[in-house]
Amino acid sequence: MKHHLLPVSAKTVHWGYFSKVVAPALTLQSGDRATIETLTHHANDDYERMIEGDPGAESVFKWTREHKAVARRGSGPAEGPFIRGSGEGVGVHLLTGPVAIEGAEPGDVLEVRILDVRPRPACKACHAGKCFGSNVAANWGFHYHDLIEAPKPREVVTIFELDTLGEPFARAVYNYVWTPQTDPDGIVHPTIDYPGVRVDHATIVKRENILSNVRVPARLHFGTMGLAPSEQDFVSSIPPSYTGGNIDDWRVGKGAKMFYPVAVPGAFFSVGDPHAAQGDSELGGTAIETSLTGDFEFILHKHRDLGGTQLEGLTHPMLETPDAWSVYGFTYPNYLAELGANAQLEIANHSSLDRAMRDAFRKMRRFLMTVHKLSEDEAISLMSVGADFGVTQVVDANWGVHGTIRKNVFRCD
Prior knowledge:
This is Acetamidase/formamidase family protein. The protein is mainly β. It has 6 helices and 25 strands. It has helices spanning about 45-50, 55-60, 335-340, 345, 355-370, 375-385; strands at about 5, 15, 15-20, 25-30, 35, 95-100, 110-120, 130-135, 155-165, 170-175, 180, 190, 205-210, 215, 220-225, 235, 245, 255-260, 270-275, 290, 290-300, 320, 325-330, 385-395, 400-405. The chain is globular and about 65 Å long.
């Protein structure tokens, strides 16, 4: 077993997409471990707290009229002309990787164990011992067209802080209403429509003393983690799919194991969209988007060895924790294959919790019948009395429902 380090830099991240054609930032073998740094794509909501003085973050977010450190920010082409900025197809998340796994082939399953997760501290001396994150009530949020206070509509950014050494809670510092921001290329962004735009704090009004009696329990986890799909060369980071991606489940944190079907040689694992805390549904648009470092272990399960194991027949992401298994249903299990050439844009027109629930039910049924050898009638009965189905997210176009079965239901006295 080897232990690798993958720090963030403009050369080790890709922004807004998964890809089977990007050169791996790291190649390792089954059984190896890696410490991987990740950055939030919302760090420029407060440059001073989340970027300034941090060499890794500064190298990624560097953007002047003369130089843009990471040009492609989405699954579109890297060069223009553009309305919002280069790579303006779809996709927003900063992902570290890809990590290639030697010997991984389509049909295999990659197990990713999250051994530890820790916050990336602020670097300015005045913020020593603190980590900061941004929560955005955004235009893609479930609430956006159902507001009751003026102005309507509006996007609101709330900055939270965590003590990196003390209590595991997040506290709100201030919030502000998004105002039109002009990027270094002269493009005006009236809404939050392009990742990494630096907010000029001279243009916003900070509202302090908010959520003054609230402490949000920290749930450090990775919102986006998975493998490259095979269907297209550049795939938006926003909708989750059969190889994982932007699942946005707060349970994908320390102590969890994620299992992903391999779709391309090398698997091409990427991780990012780090969160300090999130509730089921991620209703307003984002979690507390922060920067985290994780320790991971990678185990490759070859297709020939899957029979008779809990991975037999696995064609979708699955979570295992010490206490439970979870499967993930989506509006479309594989929207890339089901919706055709324009799938990455078309999926946003089909968001449905009904379809996601149906998919989660089918996946849980398969798991109980295949892994636990239940009949269909037994599986349906157990799901109704012993499984929990919840809304994972309603903000990622391919909406999600998770189905969870606790391990202790299979223990007999």
